[in-house]
Design goal:
rod-shaped, 0% strand, mainly alpha
Length: 126
C-alpha cells in the first residue's frame, strides 16, 4: 500500500538540519545601529516562509485525506454491490429449489405447512 501522507519537503530538509529555525541571529549584518531591526526583519521573513510552507503542507495533507476517503467510499460501494448481487442469486436459487420440492411432493408440503401453523399457534397462545 502506498504512503498516503508523504512528508513535506520542508519538513524533510528541516529534519536533515539543512534549514535552521528562524532566529534573530540569522541576520546578514554583524553590527551597527540598525542590527536589531535587520535581524528581526530576517527572522520575520524566515518565519513567514516557514508558515507558508507549513500551510502548503496542510493543504496537501487535506487533499490526500479527501482523495483517500473518496477512494475508500468507491471501494466500499463496489463491494456492497457485488455482495448484494451474490445474495440475490442465492435467494433466487433457494426459492427455485423450494418450488421444485413442493412440486415433487405437494401433499408433504401441505402437511409441513399445516404442522408449522399448528406449532406457531400453540406457541403464540396465551
Amino acid at each position: 500500500m502506498r504512503n498516503l501522507f508523504p512528508a513535506h519537503p520542508f519538513i524533510e530538509r528541516y529534519q536533515r538540519k539543512e534549514i535552521p529555525m528562524a532566529t534573530a541571529q540569522s541576520g546578514t549584518r554583524s553590527g551597527g545601529p540598525g542590527n536589531g531591526k535587520d535581524q528581526k526583519a530576517v527572522a520575520a521573513r524566515a518565519v513567514k516562509q516557514d508558515l507558508q510552507e507549513a500551510q502548503e503542507a496542510a493543504r496537501n495533507f487535506v487533499s490526500a485525506v479527501k482523495s483517500s476517503a473518496s477512494n475508500f467510499g468507491e471501494h466500499v460501494q463496489q463491494r456492497v454491490t457485488e455482495r448484494a448481487a451474490i445474495t440475490v442469486q442465492k435467494v433466487r436459487g433457494a426459492k427455485a429449489k423450494a418450488e421444485d420440492k413442493v412440486r415433487a411432493r405437494p401433499l408433504a408440503a401441505i402437511g409441513l405447512a399445516a404442522g408449522v401453523g399448528i406449532l406457531v399457534g400453540l406457541l403464540t397462545r396465551r
